[in-house]
Amino acid sequence: MENQNQEVPSETSTKPKRTRRPNKRPKSNGDESSSTKQTATNSSDAKVSASNAKGHIWSIEDFPVAEVEGKLRFHDLNLPDRVIKSIAEMGFEYCSEIQAETLPMTLLGYDIIGQAQTGTGKTAAFLIAMISDFLDYPLEEKRPNNFARGLIIAPTRELAIQIADEAIKLTTNCHLNVVTLVGGLSYEKQKIALETENVDILVATPGRLLDFARSRKVQLGKVECLVLDEADRMLSMGFIPDVKSIIRMTPHKETRQTMLFSATFPKDIQALAQQWTYFPKEVSVVPKEATNQNIDQVIYTVEADQKWPVLKQLIEENGGQRTIIFANRRDETRDLYERLRKANINCAILSGEVAQDKRVKTLKNFKDGVIQVLVATDVAGRGIHVDNVELVVNYSLPEDPEDYVHRIGRTGRGGETGKSVSFASEDDAFMIPEIEKVVGESIRCEYMVDTSQ
Ligand code: AMP
Fold first, then answer.
1. 124 CB less than 6 Å from ligand 1?
2. Relative to the CA of 90, which ligand 1 atom is closest?
3. For ligand 1, is residue 228 a contact (CB within 6 Å)?
């Protein structure tokens, strides 16, 4: 997808026709495209800045970030102080590329179609826009708790939980509530949350959300901001009919803000993205050819029965490295897990058959370094946000070549270097050209000699 960030004389460059959002933010020089250069004023909520134990009122001066040529600071976006404070506490200083590309437009109320993978900072990109908007435009009317203001739909439970975690961090300094509705976790607890808390930001997977929405336990008729994350994955997992039903329950696209993100844009997603958004700005921060630039990728061509000894050797040689091994089927993950365990390798499984609460715990242990090796299937491994994954192994090549990009994207995050090793045997080597087409480059192949025999 082209980067259409610049103003171009096309229909998509027309200003949104919203009535409540135009000119919502003071512009320093009247030129919207240069809003990235606005200086911080943040006067709007100076009074609400939280004070610390000694009575010191936090202000943006407590968060000095030097101006750097070519980098956009969060200071430069005129965000509410309460949001800036959370950003400072999270340790962010400069906008990532997707944030720098989208925030100046989303803060003005534009819809966005964004091509970006996990690891680019897209979660904070849409959350900061949504939270800032809700703080700038507090509700004027009293509503029942269960009317959602912001709705974020994600394809997997793991991803939804991670988005909610980031939303909770970004709202620690304001009174916006985050509610998560995902399958596999207690329905009752989620129902109680809807009854007792204001649903300011709702993060949900499609199936469970639809259950709650159809029984009117959650109301979507006043949603102001809708985010569809990993739209391509929603398509491949068969969620589009559910998502369509959900979107029909939200206000018309002219009166809500819609942000749609996807790593890839197959034709169906392109069409849906246009259908669901209103004069969207299109942004792409991961041109295909640049994808995975900082990941050293290698394919080992092996006999099927060489895979295990080669894997064992690889893990032992890379002693202690945080590793994710992807397999295509659950029984393969189980088998691998057993072998790794018997080889005294500290490991765990992340697949669809593992109960949700266990999966959340496993992911936490992996993040905390308690577990070294994670054996995962594509669905369960999707959207895992763990920094410092040094090695990704494709024990089998994925059946869908797009999954290859998602899998290896678990390493080399945030500009770090990473390594991916893929096994190709007689069963799946035919996939290599397809994968190379998606990656946009040829991948180094090495013929493995099994030294253990
Ligand atoms: P995401 O693409 O949303 O999965 O984000 C990947 C990781 O980058 C997450 O751990 C975020 O907390 C982190 N992150 C997001 N924005 C920034 C930023 N501007 N500076 C530093 N880290 C960030």
1. yes
2. 12
3. no
DSSP string, 299-317: EEE--GGGHHHHHHHHHHH
Q: Would you tell me how many other CB atoms lie within 10 Å of the CB of residue 363?
A: 23
Going by C-alpha positions, the residue among 356, 361, 396 that lies closest to residue 377 is: 396
Short-list 352, 322, 318, CA closest to 334? 352
Residues 202 and 243 in one domain: yes
Q: For residue 276, is it within any domain? A: yes
Of 210, 130, 211, 141, which Cα lies nearest the Cα of 176?
A: 130
Give the CATH number, domain containing residue 411: 3.40.50.300
Q: How far apart are CA 246 and CA 250, in angstroms?
A: 7
Helices 240-249 and 206-214, interaxial angle, to 10°?
A: 40
In a domain, residue 317? The reply is yes
Predicted confidence (pLDDT) per residue in 254-294, tens digit: 999 999 999 888 889 999 999 999 999 999 886 444 456 78
Is residue 365 located within the same domain as residue 338?
A: yes
Q: List the domain range (segments joined by +) for residue 351.
A: 295-447
pLDDT at site 230: 93
Tokens of 145: 């708790």
Residue 5 within any structural domain of the chain: no
Higher-pLDDT residue of 439, 227:
227
CA 142 to chain centre: 32
Pocket-testing residue among 127, 131, 385, ligand 1, by greatest number of atoms within 8 A of Cβ? 385
398 and 269 fall within a common domain? no
Is 383 within the bounds of a domain?
yes
290: tokens are 């640049």
Which run of H or of E encompasses 418? strand 418-424
Of ligand 1's atoms, which has the minimum distance to the CA of residue 163?
3
In whole angstroms, give the CA distance from residue 62 to residue 221. 40
Substitution site in 120, 123, 170 for ligand 1 pocket (most atoms within 8 Å of beta carbon) = 123
Cα–chain center distance at 373: 22
DSSP class of 65: -
pLDDT of 43 reads 39
**Closest-CA residue to 82 (of 121, 132, 138, 41):** 132
